[in-house]
């Protein structure tokens, strides 16, 4: 947490001399030195509170001191020249754990945590092996915490990590510590789903089996029996690093994979619980098929036939996708030729992403990684509903407001790792966060101001701030008194900031907003060279797709305009990109439509040829995240033979590595992709990196119910990992960093063994390559003239659970999702004659419910994006709605019970009165 | 759409004007409404005898603090009752001094006379019996408390007398009602 670097001091631990950072706590430094010391309540991202008493050490007053005194390592600053002992406090630590375990049920055999349990590891490490207590244990009633997280309170050791993460770190309000002494209880007030979008992290933060991944529990496997790989979340443009696990051909779970510059220790619930579609036969395409005409029944075909048919499609145009890998898009581009390759993005999204790419190339400001976001001390968010569009960034922004508390603590000489003290000292004093949004957001509880306004107005406010930093930017008109005051406050905050940050993105669907974010960053940069800019997209590889387009302007509307008779679409449902009628018209005009996809889509349903492609879990490739960071993901398991990676459909003879290299050589700005994956010389004695742990069980027996012959190990033609237990584990060479494990450290806590220091860089692993980092920032672009044609009569509303195509097809996510709706301010509804509680007819989309919210900008209407029942492209930008007073809410429709950005349940009450 | 979000299915009740008045008064003493939580619970308990789910929700809503927070406060303090208690809550000290001087016998006496164990309430809703740790009057052990009243040097006779009195008052107040 400490910003500056302090001189190291030397201490001795059991006569071993080590150099330590006096600004860190002793526990961190002991672990960083590679020593083992048991702990529970301390967490590298949440620092110390000293509540578990497990990390005891002995500190000696001087050379003469024979007895020393017990200290809690996590609550102590290392003292220069001091002598410490781990061994001398060993008995105490064993007693502490014995005390903690008094009521523990000891049910490891049926506990989902077993085998990767920090409590197991620490118990063994502390040497406590026999429990003397034989009295009655405390038992608790467990709660139903919703579709994501299981609850087994009896296993609790009261370390308080769960509430510290959920409340202090992630801002959740519905999980608390209850009761006292031996019956402390961690749960909600009442049964019900955990509301935080980051609740899944509880499964990793809790060192015991109290909070577990409920989806995983339903189809459980021990950690050591999972086949895993380093992967990247496909849920949004952040590109969190994940570690999916497979057994018996099904994807069982997703856990966080550490990357200090991106997701650190945490991911969001879309990423963790949104991959169920991979296993779902109702969603997946598992075998290729053909149709004689668009409405004929499909006929299954062999891979060879399907490949032949694809081969025969000459003169086809290719439509790429922001949810397909760089390599898949590139293979399509190669197949159809650059002139015939179209981005598969709506005109608007294309224009905004293209603008973002050019801003990134021109801006003098630094493109902020999530680590940079966290390190920023004054933040302005323009129009992005981060919690629902780029959730992990919202969590990082939530940390950024804590800078003020660190400053206060430093003034009082309180060590920054002293979490409880630092938080108490600051209470609700925070570093400034300003949000300009057409609706209330989930970050409003920590913002200095959330100003409700449409995108156009937000762009003007940003321009006004910019004009105060650089006279070249013209101050806009049309700002009222309140807005002028806001401009003043933002300006003052930015002036006082060490590292200001501006966030915008494509999800607001407003080009001028993104442009004015860039202008503001540029103006600010004149005064502060640490100025940061982050422009998020919506899908995993949106920016990558734009890199592939190079100077081409070919968006989806242009593809439609070609009047082509033949098209190949890779992993894209056109109905999510353009007005329904336009897609219908385009498809009707095609003689040949080939769709390569891993899920069933409306586009695929009309294709003449559908090729079954692999999901992220079954194939390898590269995604480029919002900051231009290329990251490679490795297939977790091999799908059935009829499923091929999209790259194999499009370039059957070319290996993935060749495609990756070709991208790096062919595409402007993509040279860095060459460094993403280790080359052939990486192999240690010719051995691959294993996907299975050395404890993997049942290798010869797991399929014996079908055939007693042990099948040959699956080969991976695409990479340097093997589908087997053999090879050199990542212990040896962490560049391909799979599941962390170290002797004595079976849980995810073992990751510190792979870091250069606790919470630091992974020693050797690839954290991705930032493609757009400028080598020389000499030439800077000028200010961008704002596009002034935008109307702002409607704005998009996103849901973390439901708005993204793939995760929305996962059952766990569906349990938390809702169907389409339109929302507006009650004042507008009155004026326009829409009654509360009724529905609205949306042009071409039937009737959807109308929600009235005070926290919505007047003069514009909010349209839900991606939820079933409404195609946003039919509605925007010229929205036309009719009242449908006769509309009756379906029984499952509970608008007050959906968690959305505007905290519906709260606002619902206001609506009632 | 199987499991939908419901913060809770339970409903809050309306706080009485008197409760609101007292809570508002407490609010003036603290910079953060969070801090008023405990006082507000005490106020509600004073008026209602205990803190029901409906009361808890009402206070949380009134102070605009998360109900999970308030439940944390309510359940941390043993003397905030989250279950209905009798009109007279007998808190019998069972710590060392009182134990040495026979609190077990007093407990047996109460149990046989009222038919309740620790943590139970008589069927007529008149008495609840709770064990409490040291009441700070060890020199006058054994000790018990009923309401705000501390009774020292309790023995079988004066305990009987005390219970007689309490029961008399109870029937009296019932009649006048
Ligand atoms: S539930 Fe888990 S994280 Fe929370 S206090 Fe108990 S053991 Fe710690
Ligand atoms: S959906 Fe986005 S924020 Fe969530 S885990 Fe995936 S990449 Fe990270
Ligand atoms: S880790 Fe140090 S007291 Fe818990
Ligand atoms: S032990 Fe009973 S009052 Fe102290």
TrEMBL record, chain A:
The gene is nuoG. Its cofactor is [4Fe-4S] cluster. It comes from the Bacteria. It catalyses: a quinone + NADH + 5 H(+)(in) = a quinol + NAD(+) + 4 H(+)(out). Residues 226-282 form the 4Fe-4S Mo/W bis-MGD-type domain. Keywords: 2Fe-2S, 4Fe-4S, Iron, Iron-sulfur, Metal-binding, Quinone, Ubiquinone. Gene3D superfamilies: 3.10.20.740, 3.40.50.740, ADC-like domains. Belongs to the complex I 75 kDa subunit family. GO terms for molecular function: 2 iron, 2 sulfur cluster binding; 4 iron, 4 sulfur cluster binding; metal ion binding; NADH dehydrogenase (ubiquinone) activity; NADH dehydrogenase activity; quinone binding. This is NADH-quinone oxidoreductase subunit G. InterPro entries: 2Fe-2S_ferredoxin-like_sf, 2Fe-2S_ferredoxin-type, Asp_de-COase-like_dom_sf, Mopterin_OxRdtase_4Fe-4S_dom, NADH_UbQ_OxRdtase_75kDa_su_CS, NADH_UbQ_OxRdtase_ferredoxin, NADH_UbQ_OxRdtase_Gsu, NADH_UbQ_OxRdtase_Gsu_4Fe4S-bd. SMART domains: Molybdop_Fe4S4, NADH-G_4Fe-4S_3.
